[in-house]
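Changelog entry: the Tom37 C-terminal domain-containing protein record was regenerated in this release. Current contents:
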Amino acid sequence: MSINSAKSRPVLHIWPKTEFSLSLDPACIASLLYLQTYIPEQYEVEFCANPDLSPSGQLPYLTHGLHSVTGYQGIIRYASTNYHIDPTTSLDPVRKAQLSARLAHIESSLGELTSHVLYSLTANWTASTRPALVSILPVPQKYYLPDRIRLSHQPRLEAAELWNLAAIEQEEKAEKERFAFRRKAKKNKKAEEKAKFKETVERNKVLDKARAVLNIYSSLLGDSKFFYGVERPTTLDILLAAHIYLLEQDQPDNLIKDLLTTEYPRLVAHADIVYQGAFPLPSTFPAIVSPQSSFTLRSLLPSFAPNHSSGPKSVAVQEQERRFAIMRGLFFGGALLVAGAYISQQRDALVDLYNRIQLVAAMAAAYYGAEENEEDEDNEDDDEEEEEDVDEEAQGEGDEIHEPNE
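Regenerated structure tokens:
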């Protein structure tokens, strides 16, 4: 049976919106743009922050009844087959084969650049990407999953030489110093200059890699509205536009955005055309489906809501429910009583532990304060010795000048 004759509509599951983009994943944005361009108002969107719900363990994925497909190209094939969509009917077999190869190239090359901007550049990760992930993830995933997501991109970016290792090591060092008792080490100007030079070299390498990829598609697009001169955007247009859309978003570190704005305005304009064609107005966004299940702290507690099932209950069932309610009340009451007794019993031990912690903190502060004073005295002695050496050298030079006159 055709999908058009089905009562329910397909549901696209993608990463949720953030403050600066439709999603943090270019494949999710591309899938959304494709469906909105070719089958608007015939599908629904569910924002999902749990990739484990996907058959492949990755977002995006599309469900419709008992059917499910994953990935951008899988979603395209499913929608094209059931809705008879093919914007490349005018292309010959050779160009269609080239189009498939270029889709894989964009997912690889531009996908690596996008991951570099979002997860490798320290300024963007700290001030933009990580807060965005924390805002869309539920408790308790928001406390550990963002760092796991970032580390999942590390092998791919290391292989492409796009993992900003020096900056990340500096970030980790600063994080350790933030929680250390000792005062921060004095800045080494030579080390700072060396780090800045290394960072400049790495940034130039990233720009060279970006130019190598963007030049291909800038030349291929030329002055055409869409690739291959077709009337409506192809899967290649939409996938490229999704990556450019993410790369041109304003970030604390606009390394790639500045490159796109200054050297590739045609690609930026192409991405805007694709986006405006899919979403000419904010109201054109598809219907949003509420998640079937979501985690909340309330879900950890037992439900005491009465059961409003239809039909009268027998006396035996009512008696069984009454006994169960009594046993449940006794259990939670006993648990609270035991917890209160334990806390009361351990109160003195907790107070003693708190006093010991305060004592250790005071001793540490006194020790490091004395050490700091000694270092300051040593620095003052070194400065005095340097001043004496300078005076002696100046006096010696003066004596040498007067000797010929004698």
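The chain is about 60% helix and 5% strand.
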